Amino acid sequence: MVGHTSHIYPFSDDAKEIARERCQHVLFTLLFGAEVLAPVALEHGGRVLDVGCGPGSWIEAVKSRYPATEATAVDYHPTYTPAPDSGITFTLGDVLEGLPFPDDHFDLVHHRAMILAIETDEWPRVIAELARVTKPGGWVQLTEAHLDIHARLGMTPRLRVWNEKVVRGTVLEIGADPDVAPKLAAHAAAAGLGGRVTRVAPAHLARSGAGEIGRLMAADFLAVIELLAPRIAGNDATPAQVMLWAESVLNEAEWHEVYFNFYATVAQKPGGGVVEGAAVGGS
Q: Is there a smaller number of Cβ atoms within 10 Å at the N or the C end of the chain?
């Protein structure tokens, strides 16, 4: 999400960030196999909302796959201008202040990669607002990365320090929750959503040997660290030194088969033909 829903979001709406988010869209799609993971029938229409749409990559892909849908994108900033013939509507709106849509309106509400935009204690309110605008029987789809390093061949001292000081430490300093991804289903339950199914997809951090997912992860890793380098550096280092540190961590990550887990949770609003225990998958 380029345009943030909270003052804590640390990135600007520049061309570099938009390019990063477009690549991130490809990463999410490769990890989970499709843009739409909820078992919602869109072939013959339906209303779809992308909350925190950024440059519009997800909503464009959904509209292309399901042209009969009524596709709407919303973001805090004017991050996206749909093509005149796209059939997509963009609206300014802030999920924390209340989305500019009526209750029980959308068949599918999508919310992704907001971990750096939402403060820890704001998540229940955010997901409750997503549930509000979802139709009875409709679905909310939530996807986030768990910001905690795993290493198949064991954590090294360098990786541990990076994980605690940079990955988790920086997120906590911003006011966000590095562990929100595995909590998505619980937040959805608290918002009254049922039929909850969560899928976990590991993504290796490697420029080589892990395919396109590894390459995209490595590129995103370096792009994020470059954006956060002044904050990470503080008074103890320079941004250039932080980037050298990041390169050394990336090299070590490849040798130790480092990965992050990504979580996708779909949940259904009660009423309208509830599908309990529905599978998460491509459609």
A: C
